[in-house]
Amino acid sequence: MEVDDSCAALERLRSLVADLLDKHLLGSAVFFADKLVSLSDGAAEDVFLLAQAHVCSGAHTRALALLRAECLTSASPRFLHLTAACLVATAQFDEALALLGEEGTEMHVSSCVCALSSSPPHSRLSTQLGRGRR
């Protein structure tokens, strides 16, 4: 019974972090994701959520350090892409290319650059709202 309660609490916490990320409450998302990683003993899924929260808040170096510390930089394609995006954001282009390998690196790096250079949704919305008032 206690194990079920613990699993349910972790699932509620994961749901909370995802909801906070969706609502762009990044400081809170980082806080609760950090607690989630601690409570789940560093489960890969939870480390990914924390790294994603760091990236969303602009802390690419912190996300990269977390992924490296947990040895998850290339655990799956999503970890690989997140790590490469962090490397590109911190101008570590050679490492990003080495991580992605020779095949298709132009596509991967350009997608990372595009993802990082696109404006956040809230700034696009304010631009659209500003145009509507003219």
How is the CATH topology named? Serine Threonine Protein Phosphatase 5, Tetratricopeptide repeat
Distance between the termini: 61 Å
Give the helices and strands as they follow along the chain.
Answer: HHHHHHHH
Radius of gyration: 17 Å
The overall pLDDT, averaged over residues, is: 83
Q: What's the CATH H-level superfamily name?
A: Tetratricopeptide repeat domain
Count of DSSP helices? 8
Q: Given the C-alpha coordinates, what overall shape results?
A: globular
Structural class: mainly alpha
Q: How can the largest sheet be summarized?
A: none
Q: What share of the residues does DSSP label as strand, in percent?
A: under 5%
Structure summary, number of beta strands: 0
What CATH architecture would you give? Alpha Horseshoe
Spans with pLDDT under 50 lasting ≥5 residues? 118-134
- What is the level 1 CATH name? Mainly Alpha
Labels describing this entry:
disordered C terminus; 8 helices; globular; mainly alpha; Serine Threonine Protein Phosphatase 5, Tetratricopeptide repeat
Characterize the structure shown.
The chain is built from eight helices and no strands. Helix content is 78%, strand content 0%. Helix 1 runs antiparallel to helix 2 and helix 1 runs parallel beside helix 3. It has one domain: Tetratricopeptide repeat domain (Serine Threonine Protein Phosphatase 5, Tetratricopeptide repeat, Alpha Horseshoe). The chain starts with a helix and ends with a helix. With 134 residues, it is an all-alpha fold.
